[in-house]
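Crash report, auto-generated. Payload:
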Amino acid sequence: MLKYIARRLAYTVVILILVSMSVYLIFSVLPMDPAALSCGVHCKPYIIEANRHRLGLDIPLWQQYWNFVRGLFVGRTYGEGSAAFSCPAPAFGYSFSRHACVTDLVKEAFPVTLSLAVGALVLWLIMGLTLGVVAARFKHRWPDRLATGFVLVGTSLPTFISGLMMLLFVVIKFNLVSPLDMGRWVSPFDNPVAFFKNFVFAWITLALAYAAIYTRLTRSSVIETSSEDYIRTARAKGLPEKLILRKHTLRAALAPIVTMAGLDFAGLLGGAIITEQVFNLPGLGRLSLRAVLQDYDLPTIVATTLLAATFVVVMNLIVDLLYAFIDPRVRVA
Amino acid sequence: MSVTSKGRRILAGVATSAVLVATISAAATPAASAASKSGGTLIFVTQQQQLDHLDPTRVYTGRDIAFLNTYLFRTLVAYKYSAGNAGYQLTPDLATNTGVPSNHAKTWSWTLRPGITWEDGSPITCADVKYGISRSFAQDVLPDGPTYAIQYFNIPQNADGSSKYPGPYKATKAEQALYDKAVQCKGNTLTVHLNKSVADFNYFGTYPAMSPVKKSKDTGEKYDLRPFSSGPYKISAYKIGDSLTLVRNPKWNAKSDPIRTPYPNSIEVRFGIQPDVIDQIMKTDSIPNAVSFDGLLPQDVPSYFSNPSTAKRGLLVLDPYTRYQAINAASINCLPARKALFFAWNTQAIIDANGGSKYYGVPGDNVIKPNLGPDYAPTTGNIHDPNWKASGNPAYAKQLLDQAKTQCPDVYKKLTVTGYSVDLPNTPSYKAWTPSISAAMKAAGMVVTYNFIPSGQYYSTVMNTSKQGDVTRSGWGADWANASTVLPPLFAKNGGFDLSQNWNDPAYPGFMKLVDQAMGETNRAKQSVLWHKAAQYAMDQYWVLGIMFSKAADAFGSGVGGVQWWGPQGTFLFPKMYLK
Amino acid sequence: MSADVAVNDAPVQELVSRTPNQLAWERFKRNKAGLIAAVVTLLFIIAAFGAPIITGLWHLDPEKPYVDQLTPYGMPVGGSGISWAHPFGIEPQAGRDVFAMLLYGSRISFTLAIIAGVATIGLGLVIGTTVGYFGGWVDATIGRFSDFLLSFPQTFFIVALSLPLVQRVEATGIAHGNTARIVVLILFFSVFGWPAFARIIRSQVLSLRERDFVMAARSLGASTRRILFRELMPNLWSPTIVYLSLMLPSYLAAEAVFSYLGVGVQPPASTWGIVLSDSINYWQEDPAYLMIPALMLIVIVLALNVLGDAIRDALDPKADR
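Recovered output after restart:
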């Protein structure tokens, strides 16, 4: 088991290194020259050169990458002479367009994305599990049909449409959130009401889409486990149906759901780009989107991509380890 | 300088000045009789995530210069704080004069006022001004600002045009000596030596790049987050993507500052508000103290100004920008082909799509805008040609294409078979243009494709000659009231903004001859006549198409008083704004 | 993602009197919702590819600005401009007919979704079969590679890379303008899409290759290629069709999302995504312009999803019962 964990851990690290290298490579070989892009209207070749120097792009690629990796562990210093400044470790680089260390930008954006992801997760698990269990319990009767309808609509409604509709025809129309405060980050510990008002519509939007998938998953998982021998035995013993459901079926049916929830959650942590964009939430998704579409801010792009990949890879590792723990057959793999 | 994704406020272009501004306001400007008063919080709302720059050396956007000069930065000289034509005159600010030229305008000097202070109470010295100006040379630390100092100061340059002085941060003693020779302080008199005569150099004194910076407070790259104030307000908080808050600067002394009238107690800029939400706030007046920093979206302009209850909270004026499409003369290197594009273009559809001529603008006959003053004169040909129709003249365009077919078959093939490309910012307003352009071109037998470029990267991309398409949407405002800040930038190879790539056009030498003549002419009236000729010459080459003399549409809440238009920077007259 | 976790293998039905296809068809016919969905889908596809005929019958020109239907301020007459002549109204500002726009736009959307779907399935089928059959280091290498691919944030990558990639494609001269943008989208969709499907196929092949008929073919000395293409692949068509029918709606929706984010196909083309993202600007003045394409998109995605479920139920009656 230890050996397996060690191997998976090493594998995760290798994947992350590969991802960081390829992100660096991909964005560096593209025909988008950040030094020229930020040069503006009165651009002259010497200004581009000065920009390249400022952004640290006037050195070979491998050296840039090495500086990046080193920065993660020991921090980085920028500029020369009396204009020098530094970003402490772990430094993902410096965003010249926002005048801040990328690590700080990420630190600022992460709570927003985390709040979004956690709230949505809780909401969709409650909805999905409840509906799924009800649907399975009343298989082929009207609650099941209703749940099926919900699943279909939920999976067919692109989040950007449901989100926009909610924003335009509910939030703005009825002035539920002051337009100036929309999307403004408020800590739940400072002002829980404002926090809740800011996020609740984004949660509902995201949760609707995911809850549909989870309803379907829960339903089939519960149906499948109900036909297992030990459940039949329990039923034969005359245990009440509710107890069987709670004590046996649900527990067994939960495993695949937890796995999937873990992976979906990891995906959201990387930034729910569309939801954040629609609701103007300053999370990781918008941070990266802005870095790409507005100023081609390379350090921010690399950092957010890498972070998103890290969440996925690490969650994969956790899920795999959990599985190995639960199901000994996996260990041979 | 900045293209916002809004489309109305585009434009390259920096500070602008003009002598005659036709102020066509749909609503009467608020009566001056209502007394201005102090107090309250004035709120500006914008979809931008931040101001392009707060660092005085780096700010180069007309609106931001006007905003920062009003509240935070005192400059050597300033534009008069008044609406209408008086606003274009210079008035002393930190200095006691508007600049004294000598040695054929190759040497300029300013004497500082006594009693001027920083926000910590320490006096502003000549050395502070000298240091502030020197920062412009540190292009590798503080880019984006105006480069006039590098161009004009009497400091040796390298072959590529960069200065031998690298700015104050990493200059050696010898390099610093170069600067100290060009810029000198004697007592409280600052003297600047230029490498040539620049008759209106004192206008550059209105730029924050010519204002003082206290060396001990300079944080280089980070100064953009917290510049040290010399004006009536200071920064109390700035969070990019959220807000900028200015509060009163208690050390500011009204006696040393005869021009500023700080009415509000505090000023707040709120960033990252979605454009339709901003317009919604303005329409419903839900936040009476708010002012839209961005101008209204085109689709909201007509309804806003046709409704009396909202129209009185708006400004609809001729802005300082000329909007046009540059024709890439390097790829469309054939006059009849460029003419064909010009006459096929459907200007009317674009006007209609943006709210009609009453709200958007009228077709123009010159890249110089009429509100620039004597340098504008109506041209002949182009839109005055009897064959020109506002909605396009496909029949005439076809005739011209036939000429092109024999004269330049390659270009003809590009226009009619393989297709030519139009560069547009990637915003809804410009996307709405494409159906009418495509329809007009189809009618004239031409094929068009589009390059949509993210608005934040628009000008940087099209300025790259290898990435520019065949026709490029653009806009330009004069730096000050002289066509020398319009015609050479737009059509001279080294002018800085030559999107027409016309330097290999056979007609180019003839144009440059006129420009050189005009630049050398010191008699202003004669110079104007030469500019008329040069403008006519450029128009006759059809280097641009679809010129629009456009309007700006701004909106504010009912709680804001004293809102007027300020011509020089093409924005609000910030100093006169107060809260009712 | 976790390559070692077994995917539920659906055994192929072995039946006596009727072929599995006949049985599936009979099961499908009994599913009313599935039938309705099939009809709706068919209607949409016919409408899309018959767009020139329909607009011709209606005397509409998809590119013509109906300027007379706009107020002087560029808004449609009467709010949305809906009339008998313009059943879905008029586009604000530019003045095109919305019905014609959506019809022509749906051709692009469908073409894109179908090509991307087929490309995804094709890649997944070939790679999944290969790794499943050969196993060993081939399986390990490709498995690791798809892990690597799946760890990238896809939406963000498409947004970040589409502009420069479109420029690259244009520079090669293969395609220009919207064609280039469509090519890039298809590339992205299939590159990021295949691993999930390959995984399903892999597990199917893993169980199939130990089955009698494959063993028999192998012992008779059939070539690897023959086994792969003649023996294995024909047994994989049921998961393929199910997956394809579920892939299509998600690609249709994805196209709309990328238009909303400002990458992907661009005007004057008028895919549903483009119309939708444009209509947001007029949601107050002209809500019909927003609701109509939104409703269209929801209906077709819903129909395709129902259809996909129905096909799966028909082909694989054990699942989800």
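Post-recovery validation: Residues 1-33 of chain B have pLDDT under 50 and may be disordered.
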